[in-house]
Amino acid sequence: MEKVLAACDDLDYVGSAEGLTDALDGLRRHQPHLILIGQTAGLKVIFQFISDVRNTSSICQPVLWVNDLAEIDCFRALQLGARGILKKTLPIESLLECLRSVGRGDVWIEGTLSDQVVGALDRRSAPRLTPREKEIVQHVCAGLKNKEIAEALRITAGTVKVHLMHIFEKTGVKDRFELAVHGRRMLGPEHPAELSRPESRMVSQQGS
Fold it and tell me: Were both Cys, which of 19, 73, 84, 151 would link to 108 (CB 3.0–4.6 Å)?
């Protein structure tokens, strides 16, 4: 991983850890923007670790690096705060694409996993969102909170909540995590769901 990232201008490798406790210590010391988490410890422990990461660092975005993951576990990981879910069988190019996408504030799920998670959405007709609702979706996909969206669009946080309620009703998604996953497909290629983010750094938590 260190050799791979050494060739990247926009990603800096800042360290790795053999265990999850050491990884949290590394988060506190280095304050990275990204952490790549292996699956060795088991899903229950990993899910708790994702929550610990979000409680330890407000800027660090967890990426789960897995052999495989069931649909329900994908949703669970996203709900707990994971921003990327990546299979270990994918090439290095996909890994870098995932890290860069999450570093920009997007949610990234690899193709076959994404097909499992969003397959039901593809079977529905495309929701008819208003221009304002599409703007809200774009900002949710970029990782902004309601207050930040309100400031960006010069509306109140209460108005953002109302728009989100209408979006949920129209699309059938359950919460903003699911909306972030589905957002790109809802908006289509003419509405890129991303905003500029700081340069990304990474701590890698090793595991098979």
Answer: 84
